[in-house]
Amino acid sequence: MLAALDDNLLLQLKKTIHLTRFTPNSICTWKQLEGEIGRIRKTGIAFDIEEHTLGISAVGAAIRGPEGEIAAISLPTPSVRFVDKKKELEAALRDCLNGLIERFGNA
C-alpha cells in the first residue's frame, strides 16, 4: 500500500513509521524499502518472502477504489509451496485485480 501513495505523503509517513524486524528477511531500512517501493510501482505487485513470518510468503497488490481509497489484496502461502506457485499466484492476483477494476472501476 505504501507504493500506491504519492511521494509527498510517503515522505511525511517516513518521519513517523518505525520499520520493525520480524524475521531476518524483514526490510528494516528506508533505503531498502524505497528500492522495493520503486520496483513495486513498476510492476504493481509486491512480494513478502518470509519478511513478516518465517515459513509464510505472499504476493500482494494495492488497488484504488472509485473514490481514490486504497485497499490491498494479499495471497499468503507456505513458503515451501511458494517458489513453485509464485507465477500462478501472481496471475491469480492480477486476474482478481482486473475483475475488481472491471466491476468497480479504478481511480
Short synopsis of the structure:
With 107 residues, the protein is an alpha+beta fold. 45% of the residues lie in helices and 21% in strands.
Describe this structure in words.
The protein has one domain: 2-Layer Sandwich (Beta-Lactamase), CATH 3.30.450. With 107 residues, it is α+β, with helices and mostly antiparallel strands. The chain has three helices and three strands. Strand 1 (46-49) and strand 2 form a beta hairpin. It has a three-stranded antiparallel β-sheet with strand order 1-2-3.
The main sheet comes to: 3 strands, antiparallel
SSE arrangement, N to C:
HHEEEH
| Strand-residue proportion | 15-25%
**If you average the pLDDT, what whole number results?**
93
Element layout with pairings:
Blueprint: H1 7-14, H2 30-43, E1 46-49, E2 56-64, E3 70-78, H3 79-104
Antiparallel strand pairs: 1-2, 2-3
List the main descriptive attributes of the protein structure presented here:
3-stranded antiparallel sheet, alpha+beta, 107 residues
